[in-house]
């Protein structure tokens, strides 16, 4: 009896996880196909991805509100626009929260230093080694952070 219960307790979460992964792949394929056919625009696709992320990660809302609070303190009111920009420039969904957290620090430094903002080597390591961004993506994150800092001064 204990073996049956243990098996069910292990099998059920694995089954749900596999189903979730298949659903994500299916939705991505349908959305990208609709974009290729011209049925929807890239912006509409991004909005659908955002809605899907909200539905799939209801427990992450607390984390996102914390990020939004940090960005609001910096003077940024539309975090979704930044997220769309990052997603459109090759940042993966699973990297998004980590990139946004790193950008908070970059924006703070850029606001404090003005035009003399140079990225700390530790931040470069964070973006490339820990998150897995390539050099082009890191440059995009830096440039976006500097633009945001100039706009919200």
Description:
With 153 residues, the chain is mostly helical. It folds into 2 domains: 56 residues; 94 residues, no CATH class. It contains 7 helices and no strands. Helix 3 packs parallel to helix 5 and helix 5 crosses helix 7. The longest helix is centred in the first third of the chain and has 36 residues. It starts with a helix and ends with a helix.
Which features would summarize this protein structure in a list?
153 residues, globular, mainly alpha
Question: Helices and strands in order, then pairings?
Answer:
Layout: H1 2-37, H2 42-56, H3 61-74, H4 79-88, H5 93-113, H6 121-131, H7 135-151
Helix pairs in contact: 1-2, 3-5, 5-6, 5-7
Helix content: over 70%
Spans of at least 5 consecutive residues with low confidence: none
Mind summarizing the main beta sheet?
none
Radius of gyration, CA atoms, in whole angstroms: 19 Å
Distance between the termini: 65 Å
Number of helices: 7
Overall average pLDDT: 81
| Percent of residues in β-strands | under 5%
Class of secondary structure makeup: mainly alpha
N to C succession of SSEs: HHHHHHH
User: What best-fitting shape do the alpha-carbon axes yield?
Assistant: globular
Domains, number? 2
Number of beta strands? 0
């Amino acid at each position: 009896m204990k073996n049956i219960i243990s098996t069910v307790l292990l099998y059920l979460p694995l089954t749900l996880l596999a189903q979730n992964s298949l659903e994500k792949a299916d939705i991505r394929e349908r959305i990208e196909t609709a974009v290729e056919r011209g049925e929807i625009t890239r912006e509409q696709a991004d909005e659908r991805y955002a809605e899907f992320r909200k539905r799939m990660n209801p427990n992450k809302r607390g984390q996102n509100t914390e990020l939004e609070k940090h960005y609001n303190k910096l003077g940024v009111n539309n975090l979704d626009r930044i997220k769309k920009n990052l997603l459109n420039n090759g940042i993966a969904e699973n990297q998004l929260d980590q990139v946004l957290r790193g950008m908070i620090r970059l924006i703070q430094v850029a606001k404090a230093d003005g035009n003399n903002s140079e990225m700390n080597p530790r931040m470069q390591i964070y973006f490339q080694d820990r998150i897995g961004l390539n050099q082009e993506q890191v440059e995009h994150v830096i440039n976006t952070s500097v633009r945001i800092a100039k706009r919200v001064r």
